[in-house]
Structures are given as C-alpha cells and as structure tokens.
Design brief:
A: alpha+beta; OB fold (Dihydrolipoamide Acetyltransferase, E2P); Ribosomal Protein S8, Chain: A, domain 1; 3 domains; 6-stranded antiparallel sheet; 4-stranded mixed sheet; B: alpha+beta; Ribosomal Protein S5, domain 2; 10 strands
Chain lengths: ~240, ~250
C-alpha cells in the first residue's frame, strides 16, 4: 500500500490541456476535440486501462444516487424539509422518506431548523433535481458531537485506501466518526480526543497531496494523545 | 483615443515610451488562489494594472427568473475601485462597467461547461484595484484563472490582450498614454486550443491591413498569456509537493 501512489508521477493538468493524442478514450472530466483528449477541470491526470481522465483537486460536491451525506435542515414545508447538503441545488426530504409517520403540517415536530441529519441520496435526475431519504439502516438525526466541513474532493483521502485512514482515526482517537460524501464529517467523543480528531482531519485536508499521509497522521495523533490505547500497548510491551 | 499630445509614443527606432517594442506586452504576473473565502480566485498584474478576481459557485441561481433549466449562467460583475484611477472614480455600476461585465460573462460562458449545472449560477467578481489601460483584458485573464482554480469544468482557459494603433504604428497591449492619445484599441480574447475568438471589440479607426496585423499580434500574445496562466495554476499545487520533497 505504501508506494502504490508513486507508481506514476502525479501530473497536474489544467482545463484545456491535452491529456492524450494517441487514441485513448476520455474518462471523467475530459472531453475530445479534434481527436485529442483534453482536461476539463484542474486536477491530477489519471490513466485507467485505455481511458484517461482527471481527478479534480477542487470543485463543488455533485450528488450521485447512493451517496451517504450529512445535511443541515434549512427550511421546513408542510410535507417536506429542505436540506443543505453542500451541493449547488437544494435537497428536499419528503415526509414519506423519513422513518416516522408525519402528519401533514406537522413536520417541524420531528426535524427543526438547523438540525443535522444523516441521509442517503435517493436519486438525481437529468435536471439535477435531488431526492434524499432517511429510510435506511443507520440513517438518522445526528445529535451531539461536532461537525467538520472539508472540501468534498478530499473525502477519499480521509477515508483512505479501503478505509485505512478512517479506521485508524477511529481507533486511535476513540471517537465515533461519520464521513459524508459531501465533505461533512461528524465526530463524537471525549472533548480532548475529538479535538485531536478534528485537527487530524484538518491536517489531512491541508496535506491531501502529500504521500505517506496515513503514517504522518498516525505520528501526529501519537504526539497529541500519548495515552491512547495503542501507545499504552506499546509501552506495555517494552 | 480622442486626446492630442505632443508626446512621441513610438520613436524612430520603434521603441515605445515604456521601453517596449511594438510587439511586446507588458510584464505579466499571475497568482491563483489568493483568497480563502471564495471558491476560486486569482490576482493579475499586467504592467501597472492590478486586478483581483473571485469566483463562487456553481450555486443556486438568484434571482430565480434568471435560471436556465438547460444550463448554468455565468454572472460577472466588473467593478473599478474608487482609487483605481488618478481622478477618483465615482463608485457603483456605470454604463462602461455594465458593458464590460456583459462581454466578459459572455466570453466565459463559451468555455464553461454550463450544461453540467442546469438552473445554477456561477458568479464571477472582478475588482480593478489599479487601472492603466487594458483592464477588461486583465479582468478576463484573471477571471478565467479564478474559474479554473474554483474547479469549474471548462473547455479551456481564456487569455485576453489588446492590440491597437498609436502614432500610426500597430502596437500590442496599449498602455494608458497609447490608449488615450492613440488611434485605435482592439481587445481580443481567444480559446487557445482552437483559436476561436470569444471577445473582440474595436474603438477607433484602422485600415483592414492594420486590423489584420493587430489580430495576429494579439492572438500570438494570447498564447503567451495562456502559458503564464497555466504556470500560475500549476505553481499553486506544485509548491506543497516541493516542500515535501525537501
């Protein structure tokens, strides 16, 4: 896992830059013009089999169906709530999509303004109309803990390869952490531990381009939380 | 364009008052990502012009009646600071800045992949901190870097530069004296990958041959500006990597 990042140089491309002129197919964030594949966003050039695309470095969150997201209730209607999920479009949550039986006009008794909810994106249609649901296992209103907002393009770094980063964070800080695909992260734990977890996540966001991030974050948490379980365990061995 | 002067704008050796040749643009400095709270930003200096551009979006379009159900709209606001010119500029939108806002947003709409974000709006704010002729080109140059910095999908980065005529010579990138006392000013913006023109205006008089020459000069210079834009964007992300390797 260590050096797999380094197998190809991380080449940064800008919109309009030629990614390939030898007949590869355009992947994500790429388009073809006069037989040449060009980038459409700024990001890292990414070759996969015979397609070439760009992994964006920045940009706003675009929901896709199946995403788990954390949202904040920003408006209440008689039969729905409007949820801000950090997308360019509002996400209505219909009363049929919550796990309670809500009477017409009784919506504010269940979820109020500013409440934080864990949701799943049900569908996004062609005109980018979003539907979200709370009717799935684990989806609920979130209470307590703290929220951190990071750029959605850094979410994959926070999770890490097959969840390595996030499981390390959870274990070392002893916090409950839920990462939304939209870049909202919920952390619940002791004040001190949660502080470190927040700092670690901010660090991941700031250094997302750097290699060997998991080890560095591990070092960072160890320096902040010397009494964490793993450390005690090591001391015990000595 | 209208004024008269005894100043020699181009001397017998083809040198201009600021020491440039006819085909030379002013020194250009571009920096991407200078503002924290905007989604994307850029700072551009072209000679004595100083321009700041910030981008927000794509986000929900307000007012609602401007929404387009097929594509996103690019809303641009060009604003000159009161201290940007030697006589205080009266603040607020005027006929000139409304015009420039319109042509810049139309130029940017041609490169941004607006159909990806129906009903949304992409807001571009251009602030002229210091003006010395050619601010619409500097503004557009900054705005397109800011758009790319915001991670907005676009076909290409748009560079812009002006050509013109002063003292009977066709010149690239007019400065204030050449603009005020010259005979013509032609700002141009292109899409570098296809050489399509997305902005072309002309103020003053030129012959057809002079005009063609001016376009050639400006298109070539646009490619140079484009290289500087690309460099600015790449520099933004290569810095942390360098620190890391050290």
């Amino acid at each position: 896992m260590e050096r797999r990042n380094a197998r190809q140089t991380r080449e940064i491309v800008v919109p309009g830059e030629v990614l390939d002129g030898t007949g590869m197919k355009p992947g994500e964030n790429a388009y073809v013009q006069d037989g040449k594949v060009r980038a459409s966003v700024m990001g890292v050039r990414n070759v996969f089999q015979n397609t070439v695309g760009v992994i964006p470095l920045r940009g706003c969150y675009m929901p896709t169906s199946g995403d788990t997201v954390i949202g904040i209730i920003v408006d209440i209607g008689p039969s729905n709530w409007l949820v801000d999920i950090c997308a360019p479009y509002p996400a209505p949550l219909h009363v049929n999509e919550v796990p309670w039986k809500v009477e017409f006009g009784d919506t504010s008794r269940y979820l109020g303004m500013g409440n934080v909810v864990l949701l799943k994106v049900l569908s996004v249609d062609e005109s980018k109309k979003i539907q979200v649901t709370m009717k799935d296992s684990g989806l609920r209103r979130i209470q307590g803990g703290r929220l951190v907002k990071i750029s959605h393009s850094k979410v994959s770094r926070v999770i890490g390869k097959s969840g390595s980063m996030i499981s390390m964070l959870k274990n070392m800080t002893d916090c409950r952490i839920t990462v939304g695909q939209n870049g909202m992260i919920w952390i619940d734990g002791d004040d001190e531990n949660a502080d470190v977890a927040v700092q670690a996540i901010k660090m991941i966001e700031a250094q997302a381009q750097a290699g060997n991030l998991t080890d560095r974050v591990k070092e960072f948490i160890e320096s902040k939380l010397p009494q964490s379980e793993e450390e005690e365990y090591e001391e015990g061995e000595e | 364009m209208s004024g008269h002067t005894d100043m020699v704008l181009v001397d017998e050796n083809g040198m201009r008052i600021d020491g440039r040749t006819e085909e030379q643009h002013r020194p250009i400095k571009i920096e991407a990502g200078v503002l924290n709270n905007a989604d994307g930003s850029a700072y551009v200096e072209i000679g004595k012009n100083k321009v700041l551009a910030a981008v927000y979006g794509p986000r929900e379009c307000h007012p609602r009646h401007l929404q387009n159900p097929q594509k996103a709209i690019v809303q641009c606001k060009y604003n000159m600071q009161a201290f940007s010119v030697s006589d205080r500029k009266r603040p607020g939108p005027d006929r000139r800045s409304i015009e420039i806002s319109k042509i810049i947003s139309e130029a940017l709409e041609k490169v941004v992949l607006t159909e990806l974000y129906p009903r949304a709006s992409i807001d571009v704010y251009i602030e002229i901190l210091q003006a010395n002729a050619g601010t619409r080109c500097a503004g557009l140059t900054a705005a397109s870097v800011a758009l790319a910095d915001a991670g907005i999908p676009m076909r290409d980065i748009v560079p812009a530069i002006a050509a013109g005529k002063a003292d009977g010579h066709v010149l690239l990138d007019l400065n204030k004296e050449e603009d005020n006392y010259g005979q013509a000013d032609v700002p141009i913006a292109i899409i570098p990958s296809t050489d399509e023109i997305v902005l072309l205006q002309m103020d003053g008089n030129m012959t057809r041959e002079e005009f063609d020459h001016a376009i050639d000069l400006a298109v070539n210079a646009c490619h140079e500006v484009h290289d500087i834009q690309v460099d600015a964007l790449k520099r933004r992300y290569s810095k942390p990597a360098q620190e890391e390797s050290e």
